[in-house]
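User: Some background: our group keeps a shared notebook of sequences we're curious about, and every so often someone picks one and asks for a predicted structure to add to the entry. Today it's my turn. The entry only has the sequence so far, pasted here. Could you supply the structure so I can complete it?
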Amino acid sequence: MTIIGIAGGTGSGKTTVVRKIAKALPPHCAAVIPLDSYYNDTSDLTPEERKAINFDHPDAFDWKLLTEHIKKLKNGEAIEQPTYSYIESNRQKETIHVEPKPVIIIEGIMTLHYKKLRDMMDLKIFVDTDSDVRLIRNIRRDVVERGRTVDMVLDRYEKVLKPMHEQFIEPTKKFADIIVPQGGENRTGINILKTYIEGIVTEV
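Assistant: Of course. Here's the predicted structure to add to the notebook entry:
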């Protein structure tokens, strides 16, 4: 089994890179584990307290559960991946059944932050995209998918996203084996990645 970690700032194009890599692999060869599914369970908090959570801080994630789940997959055991609602700022009752696959891709803003998880990875990738592009993508996504206004997105970017990116996400670039500039638009970089990963899968 090959464990691949893909990190990068919010709106960097991580999901596009993951989708293109997974599509290039044989059918049913890869399982994608989104870091966003492993935000802490906040059932004990009030709705107001949940809305105040800094989702761009490492403490917002349940690293212990995620690491346990990756260990299980490596050991050939299936997991019940949690699901998360940005609207309710809490985990959902529903889970997603994930079977072990030859390739496990962990994708999220801080995928390379937690050392115990990072040490389990065979390949670490950082998707690096210009901050202006990431901001535009955040505005488009949050307004359409998460019911936020443009002012809300800009305020959050200035007070939370930008400082958290500089403090916690950008520094993890040093742990990456490969850096992909321009995110999903970098066809050459993605093709090189796909060829490399296909080679790993073939060897296995």
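Suggested note for the entry: Residues 11 and 141 are 9 Å apart (CA to CA). The longest helix spans residues 150-169.
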